[in-house]
Write a structure and sequence with these properties.
Blueprint: H1 2-26, E1 28-44, H2 47-51, E2 59-60, E3 73-84, E4 96-106, E5 112-121, E6 134-147, E7 155-164, E8 169-177, E9 182-183, E10 187-193, E11 200-214, E12 223-231, E13 244-261
Parallel strand pairs: 5-6, 5-10
Antiparallel strand pairs: 1-3, 1-13, 2-4, 3-4, 4-5, 6-7, 7-8, 8-12, 9-11, 10-11, 11-13
Length: about 260
């Protein structure tokens, strides 16, 4: 009898877990699906300047170990290669480019999350966007190229420029040797708005990540040339010295489903 009960429990537990996950997902609405290429810079910026962006109840969540150690802000350059609605059709222009600023935080409930504190986009329809703090790029460009011969490494160059009429500018140039990238597991990440702290999106995402340089884990340094410029307007204090770059992360692709809670 006890053996039968154990077998029944062993069959029942996975079913209950499935039902709970299904019920949780049913309480979410799919907004869009996207495939993107990104470059992410992990930074340590002045704590006082960053604190001015944190809404009440949110606290900076800085890792003390691992590749994200000491990072309190990320600058993420994004090429949204394809953006599709829940029906699979292109959403809006179907593709656009932007750079946004996200801080690792703990939300009011103490859970890990990301806080979107600003961004610059080339898509007028995305201004100020759902997060309420995107600026329109009056200058924007992206150049990316690969060089591969019969022998030797694959070399990659990237050149991103975004500037707004109010003086904010985020610019990044890179030449690096492409390495072997790791694929992460599918994960749900909450992205809150610093402008509207009651609003958040859930990003269900998986990505392939190639860390080109990291000041903590010290992988083989494959960055040959790198230049990052951030200045002007509302970003001036945030990127004032002392400013430290911690990690150069080439995200070859990221696949995302964006959901809104019911």
């Amino acid at each position: 009898m006890k053996t039968s009960l154990r077998r029944f429990a062993a069959l029942l537990l996975p079913l209950l877990s499935f039902l709970l996950v299904t019920a949780a997902h049913a309480a979410e609405t799919v907004v869009e699906n996207s495939l993107e290429a990104r470059f992410q810079l992990d930074l340590l910026v002045p704590e006082k300047a960053l604190a001015a962006y944190l809404p009440a109840g949110f606290t900076s969540n800085v890792a003390t170990t691992g590749p994200a150690k000491d990072c309190n802000l990320r600058v993420v350059f994004i090429d949204r290669i394809s953006v599709n609605g829940p029906d699979g059709k292109p959403l809006g222009s179907g593709s656009h480019r932007l750079v946004y600023l996200v801080a690792p935080v703990k939300d009011a409930a103490g859970a890990n999350a990301q806080l979107v504190i600003g961004g610059i986009t080339n898509d007028p329809a995305n201004v100020p966007g759902l997060f309420g703090n995107y600026l329109l790029a009056t200058t924007h460009s992206l150049q990316r190229s690969l060089s591969a011969g019969a022998t030797g490494p694959v070399m990659e160059t990237q050149d991103w420029v975004f500037a707004a009429a109010t003086g904010e500018k985020l610019e990044f140039q890179l030449t690096a040797e492409r390495g072997t990238a790791n694929k992460g597991n599918l994960a749900d990440v909450k992205f809150y708005s610093a402008k509207i702290p009651t609003f958040y999106q859930i990003s269900r995402q998986e990505q392939v990540l190639d860390i080109l340089r990291n000041t903590t884990t010290n992988p083989p340094d494959r960055v040959k040339n790198s230049n990052f410029t951030a200045s002007g307007g509302s970003y001036a204090a945030l990127f004032a010295p002392p400013l430290k770059l911690l990690s150069w992360d080439n995200i070859l692709w990221i696949r995302r489903t964006v959901l809104l809670p019911e």
